[in-house]
Amino acid sequence: MMKKWYSLLLAAAMLFSLAACGSSANVEGTPAPEESTPVVSATPAPEGEGADSGLSPTVQQLYQEFDAAMEAQIGTMPEQFGDIKVGAVVISLTNPFWVNMKNYYEAAGEEMGIDIDVQTGTTEGDTASQLDVLMTMADMDYDVIIVSPIDGTNLIPGIVKCNENGVKVINLGPGVDVDALEEAGGHLDATITVAFTEQGETVANDMISRLPDGGQVAILAGLAGAGQSEGRTSGAKSVFEATDNIDLVAVQNCDWDATLAYDATKALITEYPDLKGIFCCNDTMALAAVEALTAEGKEGVLVYGVDFTDDARAAISAGTMTGSMSYSSERYTKAALQMAVMLNEGETFENNIYLPLTLVTVDNVNDLEGWK
After folding, report:
1. d(Cα 354, Cα 194) in Å, to the nearest integer?
2. What CA dihedral angle connects 16, 18, 22 and 23, to 10 degrees?
């Protein structure tokens, strides 16, 4: 059965430049370094002819830029393609971000005419259960499986099994340790991800811009060894440590856990009563930090997260959170499914695919109606 893909054409707006990546060989071995990804400030754009009334002008602009970036790196969707069954292994449905990703995968599959099955482990730190899921799926009738590992190595046996069974594998988001994978005799067929280091750098620079007199700041990291946490932390840390009037007083792993982040925040403001800012490596921890600050009656501390979840949007709109790094999860899943189709049709991808980034703050959150 042949399917058709219709890409969304949105209103024209400001252009940006991206390094275009060709597609000629499988991704194997050590990945290329993270490329500089445009961070769009979400400045409102004027209403344009053909604008979608359900989206703000800014969101129309961001979607157009995202689509252009993906076309430059991935190419265009085949107008016709054969039947395909896709599996996806996400991290945990205890995190709103991955709940949204599951929903967007399923919506994209329905829209694109692609059969997709989304599976997950039990909790965000349960590496064994996530591997069990992939090992089972590797023996089923999937053509392509998209994996988002808890850490860099936990899914390697499952990926190797997919390779052996002729199932193509796309790594989405948190990175697989490709050196360890190669040592185990496996490979990835494609990677679509985010420049995690740049996320941390962008947040740190925005925080510093709001602290003209400097001050003490802290980082609440996620799970040790998780690529997204390590990248975000190192990016923010490098910027903070290179700024003369900024004192990075703590970097603490809170394992993506709200309770740990809440307790860590209370301990931080007790030890450092002049603390001016906290960067949390996801929104779950950022919201917990806000809750702890509120419970202690502590005001004036800038709090940033990552993922721009619905609860984070509400907190930023209310002014209790300062900002959150974002990218379109809806477009992310569509791009991954397009890559799955192209792999199944015989295309190959030489380079990692990177998503455009957007920093949402108290200054622009109201311009992002319809962003998802």
Report:
1. 5
2. -90
Three-state DSSP at 168 gives strand
Q: How big is the CA angle at 292 (ends 287 and 293), to the nearest 5 degrees?
A: 95
The DSSP string of 178-219 is HHHHHHTT---SEEEE--HHHHHHHHHHHHHHT-TT-EEEEE
What phi-psi label fits residue 348: left (phi over 0), alpha (psi between -120 and 50 degrees) or beta?
A: beta
pTM of the entire structure?
0.81
Q: Report the C-alpha gap between 7 and 334 in whole angstroms.
A: 10
Q: Is 169 helix (H, G, I), strand (E, B) or coil?
A: strand
**Among candidates 233, 258, 231, which has minimal Cα distance to 123?**
258
What separation in angstroms does the CA of 127 have from each of 145, 196, 217, 362? Answer: 17, 21, 31, 36
The pairing of beta strand 215-221 with beta strand 275-280: parallel
Amino acid making up residue 270: T
Contact in structure between 357 and 325 (CB atoms under 8 Å) = yes
Q: What is the pLDDT of residues 288-335, one digit of tens each?
A: 999 999 999 999 999 999 999 999 999 999 999 999 999 899 999 999
Separation between Cα atoms, residue 11 and residue 354, nearest integer Å: 23
Q: Give the chain's end-to-end CA distance (angstroms, integer).
A: 30
In sequence order, the 6+-apart residues with CB closer than 8 A to the CB of 269 are 275, 292, 293, 296, 298, 301
Residue 59 β-bridge partners: none
Structural contact between residues 144 and 343, judged by C-beta atoms closer than 8 angstroms: yes
Nearest to 120 by CA among 143, 139, 103: 103
- Three-class DSSP category at 171: strand
Q: How far is CA 99 from CA 84, 91, 120, in A?
A: 23, 9, 10
**Closest to 277 measured CA to CA, from 197, 368, 367, 212:** 212
**What percent of the chain is predicted at pLDDT more than 70?**
86
Over pLDDT 90: what percentage of the chain? Answer: 80
